[in-house]
Amino acid sequence: MEKLKFISEMTDSLIWPVITIVILYVLRKPLSNLIPKVKKVKFKDLEADFHELTVSDQSLLFLDGVSRKEQWTFYEKSREGERALGQAFLIIVRDLLSVERSEVIQKLKQWLASENNNLIWFASEIIGFFKIYELKEDLLNIVPKDTNVDLSTHQLNALWALARITNFIGLSRILQSTNSKINQEWILFVYDQMPNEREFTIERRIGALEEFINKNNLDEDIVLLANEILQRLKSPNKAFQPTPKSGSAEL
Question: How far does CA 164 lie from the centroid of its chain?
């Protein structure tokens, strides 16, 4: 194969997730050593000799390709629409940040400014996970000031990333203030998804959820979801038994 169109075609094939796992966990070699038949890559009017690219550029090109068509999370627990295989990409990103931080930051700025929502999502995932403070202003440009409107998933992930680098103050405030059910549900999942850490402790989440549940005019299913998460946080090893809705028969 003489040419490979990474951006539009590579993630359509199941072989790429397999190649990623092999790269990360077995071979740990540059992509050019793994795919010797690939001589050139082409994107729009740009064509480059793949073997002449640095390892960092190869890795960034690869991440650019796989992040365009799906949403990836670095966390073990993923919501519907996210793929947890992003945990494998985490190794590539961590290595890139350790050796080419300034180059990665420039690439993240490009992704955030792109028209591809999945690229924006992935850039936000990287920025939030690694707390890249230099890109705070870029995230602010993505998140609307009016959080009562239904935000898209890439805007919500940018909001989460912004919260990660500001000790989660903003996320809790928006959960309490937004009237959007979509925003509420998305943020509630974050409270369930995130591991315990210094800035986002279990106790802090429990307090925020208890305050949220006491709000007026919440939809019944949002209250139920918040209570499920609250009980999991309080008793992580105990299965949640939902309270039957009024009028429903108890078994």
Answer: 12
- CB neighbours of 190 closer than 8 A, spacing ≥ 6? 160, 171
Q: Spell out the alpha helix ranges (H) of 113-180.
A: 117-130, 136-140, 153-164, 169-177
Helix (H, G, I), strand (E, B) or coil at 4: strand
| Domain positions in the chain | 3-134
* pLDDT, mean of residues 217-221: 93
Predicted model pTM: 0.76
d(CA 22, CA 34): 9
Q: CA 165: distance to chain centroid? A: 14
Start-to-end Cα distance in the chain: 62
Residue 11 three-state SS: helix
pLDDT tens profile 107-160: 999 999 999 999 999 999 999 999 999 999 999 999 988 989 999 999 999 999
**Which of 2, 72, 63 lies closest to 36, judged by CA?**
2
Asked if 110 contacts 120 with a C-beta cutoff of 8 angstroms, the reply is: no
User: Rounded distance, CA 127 to CA 134, Å?
Assistant: 9
The pLDDT value given to residue 168: 83
Structure tokens at 203: 């106790």
pLDDT at 236 over 80: no
Does residue 6 register a pLDDT over 90?
A: no
Give the DSSP H/E element, type plus range, for residue 46.
Answer: strand 46-49
